[in-house]
Amino acid sequence: MVQVSGASAGYETPVLEGVAFTLAAGERLALVGRNGCGKSTLARAILGDPAVWRSGDWMVPDPAAIGYLDQHYANLDWRDTALAAVERVTPTWSLSQRRHHLADFLLRGEQLVQTRVGELSGGERARLALACIAARVPDLLILDEITNNLDLRTLHHVVDVLRDYPGAMILISHDDDFLAAIGAVCLLQLGER
Fold first, then answer.
1. What 3-state DSSP class applies to 85?
2. How far is 138 from 134, CA to CA, in rounded Å?
3. What range(s) does the AAA+ ATPase domain occupy (predicted)?
4. Of the spans 12-16, 30-34, 79-83, 151-155, which averages the highest pLDDT?
5. Cβ neighbours of 151 (radius 10 Å)
6. What angle do CA 121, 63, 148 make, to 5 degrees?
7. Which letter does DSSP use for residue 81 in this model?
8. Mean pLDDT in the chain?
9. φ, ψ dihedrals at 71, nearest 5°
10. Cα radius of gyration (the chain)
11. Which pLDDT value is given to residue 26?
């Protein structure tokens, strides 16, 4: 799935050097370390972000096979309604299928599904962003600090959804309980923690 060795990544200067790890299908890897140590840079390098240069050996999935969710929910257009956001990623689904899918992520009721993304709470945005990603079930899911804006109810729901996710996962989080609940058994320490 993912194999990285002798890897460096950064922007104008290296943020990471000498990184090596392997992630098999279905495994869950936790990237941990202090803020600024390169966790998000590594995620963006795996995604093939053109703003991040990389060197070394990188065997990563095609970006189309990766679902990426960051703490700012960049995969959402804040002008869309919740329903329109799901419609963007499910053009062949019926309205009923889209509504059912949103309901699976606790986004129910006409008023809520017609609310613009920019007006949703942090927890509602998190659930919507996950709903959009889950609609296509990527081979690799990268979650970057998604628990920052979650209330307890949403956190429990997100944990339940992610436990059932069949693909490989890279989780960036300072929340050890969240990492344990998701089943992140592999750990890659970057810098000091």
1. helix
2. 7
3. 25-192
4. 79-83
5. 13
6. 25
7. B
8. 92
9. -70, -10
10. 17
11. 93
Structure tokens at 154: 């949403």
Domains of the chain, by residue range, sit at 2-189
Laid out side by side, the sheet with 14-23 consists of 14-23, 2-10, 53-59
Contacts of 12 (CB under 8 A, 6+ apart): none
Residue 131 vs residue 185, higher pLDDT = 131
Token match 């890279």: residue? 170
Q: What is the CATH number of domain 2-189?
A: 3.40.50.300
Beta partners for residue 7, in sequence order: 19
The Cα–Cα gap between 118 and 148 comes to 17
Q: Which structure tokens are listed for 61?
A: 């999935």
Check if the beta carbon of residue 72 is closer than 8 Å to that of residue 123: no
Whose CA is closest to 123, among 78, 71, 65, 74? 71
What pLDDT shows up at residue 186?
76
User: Backbone phi, then psi, for 162, in 5-degree steps?
Assistant: -70, -30
Amino acid (one-letter) located at 108: R
Q: Show the tokens assigned to 1.
A: 């799935």
Q: Strands, DSSP E only, in the chain?
A: 2-10, 14-23, 28-32, 53-59, 66-70, 140-144, 168-172, 186-189
89 φψ region: left (φ > 0), alpha (ψ -120 to 50), beta (else) = alpha
